[in-house]
Amino acid sequence: xxxxxxxxxxxxxxxxxxxxxxxxxxxxxxxxxxxxxxxxxxxxxxxxxxxxxxxxxxxxxxxxxxxxxxxxxxxxxxxxxxxxxxxxxxxxxxxxxxxxxxxxxxxxxxxxxxxxxxxxxxxxxxxxxxxxxxxxxxxxxxxxxxxxxxxxxxxxxxxxxxxxxxxxxxxxxxxxxxxxxxxxxxxxxxxxxxxxxx
Length: 198
Known about the structure:
Helices cover 13% and strands 72% of the residues. The chain has an eight-stranded antiparallel beta barrel. It is mainly beta. A hairpin with a 2-residue loop joins strand 8 and strand 9. It has a single domain, classed as Beta Barrel (Porin). It starts with a helix and ends with a strand.
């Protein structure tokens, strides 16, 4: 009799914990901090020391309106890329670098696959500020400029619940940004971090 009672209590406790896990992962407010890599789609032909990827990170706050729909507001950094170009006539080396960061607001649609795994898609708008710097070392000349671009941003990702209030989160985001000198290019960032649910 006691064994049956204990098994019933264990089953009820497991069910309650599972329900709490699902509720903690899918309802209310959350924050996330992630770090990873950005990949800029730039043409490195004719350059030297070309760097087209860098460390990326983002911080965001989100709110789930129901188990499927939510919204997020975040800040992101796409790191800094750069390259050197040598003038074929004068042999002067010019260095150029571009740094990108911005803010975004996106809508999120989530699907709970069970076993603490949730996948999601995102679509919204982001404003990316790029800061370009040009240098000619031979004459110690430096010039810089900055510009902003508002563009659609989209992404996919997944979370894996560690506790009712903490989850691992992975994101792949894509956006189009100004890459300096009036050029624009696509940037894809891949990040992983922790998400805390409240």
